[in-house]
Design a protein that fits this description.
By secondary structure, the protein is an alpha+beta fold. The chain has helices spanning about 20-25, 120-145, and strands at about 5-15, 40-45, 50-55, 60-70, 75-85, 90-100, 105-115.
Length: about 150
């Protein structure tokens, strides 16, 4: 079976400062505080490239390796190394925080991956998109309160 390269991306302008949003993202930890469906999350090691993040979603685990934390560019990248949530592999995520008008944060969150079965694309695209849109809403709420 051939895999198909795909990308799902979500953007949003959050009613919170870029600095407060970046502080949450760059910590690498506490994803369960703002991402829907994530019931627990722990960081193994410091929030630096190479650290391991383990997120639990119900009875499934998602294990990620932090690849990039670039404070100057407000760029966070991670690789999903193990997961049984979706029919994908080789997933590489990017979260970029930028300044928008009126002191708000503009966030781009995308995931590049290999889709293992083309027939699952609509479900995978909607599932990731829904999770990321919910994550942006959770980030906004958490960042605005900090």
């Amino acid at each position: 079976m051939n895999s198909i390269l795909k990308t799902v991306s979500v953007t949003g302008t959050l009613n919170a400062t870029p600095q407060s949003v970046w502080k949450i993202i760059r910590s690498g930890d506490g994803v369960d505080r703002w991402a829907p469906g994530v019931t627990a999350c722990r960081l193994e090691g410091a929030a630096v490239a190479g650290a391991r993040r383990v997120c639990t979603m119900g009875d499934k685990q998602l294990i990620e390796r932090i690849e990039t934390i670039d404070d100057a560019s407000q760029l966070f990248q991670y690789r999903i190394t193990e997961q049984s949530v979706m029919p994908i592999r080789g997933a590489f995520g990017t979260v970029h925080v930028a300044s928008a008008a009126n002191g708000k944060a503009h966030v781009l969150w995308l995931l590049n991956f290999e889709l293992l079965d083309e027939s699952t694309w609509p479900m995978v695209k909607e599932g990731i998109g829904e999770m990321y849109r919910g994550g942006l809403a959770g980030l906004e709420k958490l960042a605005a309160g900090s």
